[in-house]
Specification:
This protein is of the alpha+beta class. It has helices at about 15-25, 30-35, 45-50, 50-60; strands spanning about 10-15, 65-70, 80-95, 100-110, 115-125. The radius of gyration is 16 Å and the shape is elongated.
Length: about 120
C-alpha cells in the first residue's frame, strides 16, 4: 500500500434507524433524541457513530490511531447519506522504521452541508 501526501480517500454511508438502535445498545448513549423520532420520523445519529466514517478509512489502511480530533457541526439523522473525504497530510517512515500518517477529514451530508470535520494521526501497522 502506497499512499501519497495530498491523496483523497472517500467513503460514503447512509445511516439507518437500525444503525442508531444498535449503536444505542452498544454505547448506552440513550439520549431522548436517539430513541424518540422527530416529527419527520428520524432519529439523531450519535456523534461517535458518525465519527466511524473517518475511522473506517483508517481501518482500511491498518492505521493504529494515536490522536483523533472531531468537530461536530450539524446533527446527522437516520436516512442521511454522509460522504467522508480524508486527505493524507503526512505519510512517511519514522525513526523506528514504521510509517507515520496524518490526515484531515470532512464529512458532508446529502444536502452538501458539512456535518463533521477533524483530523487523525497514527502509524501504519
Amino acid at each position: 500500500m502506497v499512499l501519497q501526501v495530498g491523496e483523497k480517500i472517500t467513503f460514503e454511508r447512509t445511516f439507518t434507524r437500525e444503525d442508531v438502535e444498535l449503536f444505542t445498545k452498544v454505547s448506552k448513549d440513550e439520549g431522548a433524541h436517539h430513541i424518540t423520532p422527530d416529527e419527520q420520523g428520524r432519529f439523531v445519529v450519535q456523534g461517535l457513530l458518525t465519527a466511524t466514517l473517518p475511522t473506517k478509512v483508517g481501518g482500511d489502511y491498518n492505521v493504529l490511531a494515536r490522536t483523533m480530533n472531531f468537530e461536530f457541526l450539524r446533527p446527522v439523522y437516520s436516512d442521511d447519506t454522509i460522504r467522508c473525504d480524508v486527505i493524507i497530510e503526512q505519510f512517511e517512515p519514522d525513526e523506528k522504521n514504521r510509517t507515520t500518517i496524518s490526515t484531515t477529514f470532512t464529512c458532508i451530508n446529502q444536502l452538501g452541508k458539512e456535518v463533521l470535520k477533524g483530523n487523525f494521526s497514527g502509524i501504519i501497522l
